[in-house]
Here is the input.
Amino acid sequence: MAGHSKWHNIQHRKGAQDAKRGKIFTKLIKEIVIAAKAGGGVVENNPGLRMVIDKALAANMKRDTIENAVKRGSGDLEGENYDEVRYEGYGLGGTAIMVDTLTDNRNRTVADVRHAFSKHGGNLGTDGSVNYLFTKQGFISFESGDEDQIMEVALDSGAEDVVTNEDGSIDVITTPEEFFTVKDALTDAGLESTHSQVTMEPSTRVELNLQDAEKFMKLIDRLEDLDDTQEVYHNADISDEVMAQL
Here is the structure.
């Protein structure tokens, strides 16, 4: 679980950079459109839409921008059509990488992804080449807190596990289906998380030294910078000491 927390630190760093560049809103709008298209525009009946709207609000997106994106997805407003495409590949040391994209031009997107892999020491793989190494899970994380209370509320509401990390942070692990049930129960109990997300958690991790980690993060940064990229998942294990030097 320690590796999970480190990856969240990387995600937070990238999230801050994306926000400065203004890219995060573009990515979130695409995600809202897709979620509304897939499950309808009623938030109460569409957990996927609720999840991305929560992310958009946390990023300080205006509600009218969110509402317009929902209307585009549900067909009430005209707009581009996006396809969800996942690319799988390998980085240094045999690390597994998955890139989730939303695109209106598959040829452009696959060319961009392939170029990023080849330029930074990786290889684009075939469908299913690394997907089997990941499991979709919900994480509700607390920087600190009453471990007993968090555990009691989480497990009673359907969480799979509660893990306390070496730095004192606490991760509540759920199935994707129980994510909001557990999150709402924790919130109702006055327990506000610092980060919550349904993500792809690797079953095994590959530890990287400083030299490889530097090259690897250049690949991850490049993949995340692509306009069509929504999420990047990997199974690299980068220690706190190495992270501090990146």
About this structure: The beta strands are 83-90, 96-103, 123-124, 134-142, 161-164, 170-174, 195-202, 206-207, 229-234, 236-237.
